[in-house]
């Protein structure tokens, strides 16, 4: 519930790496996000610091991202931010990953053509009869077997009490 959801706008920095596993398809690529600001002294836009994120996509998003993205393309990524710190060869390294929920081309910097993907055909589950959920007595089988047993127990309890 308490996750950091972000929207990062930047450029695809590495080609998407697509993999099929037992858990389903996944893809990852690096996203370069560079801040820009207006420098009044130079009267021009200036690039600031560049942050790199590893973007992870799963299932159909992974398939579509691998087929649609190329290095250098401007994209927007929305997802959960995960920051990790690892120690490797005695040095502490921090990395930031985005578990993507949505990925799309940044249309403020170009055009794109959308093509809907087909869903794989799945067999319909076999039809199951609906259960009888009536509260007034259950099924006729239950009424025929259980009701006389209940009545007999009531009679026994009444004779014990008197």
UniProtKB/TrEMBL annotation:
Keyword DNA-binding: yes
Family annotation (SUPFAM superfamilies): Nucleic acid-binding proteins
HAMAP family tied to this protein: SSB
Protein name: Single-stranded DNA-binding protein
Keyword tags: DNA-binding
Region described as Disordered: spans on this chain: 114-162
Lineage: Bacteria, Bacillati, Actinomycetota, Actinomycetes, Kitasatosporales
Methyltransferase keyword on record: no
InterPro entries: NA-bd_OB-fold (IPR012340), Primosome_PriB/ssb (IPR000424), ssDNA-bd (IPR011344)
GO molecular function list: DNA binding
Subunit architecture: Homotetramer.
Bias kind Basic and acidic residues: ranges: 152-162
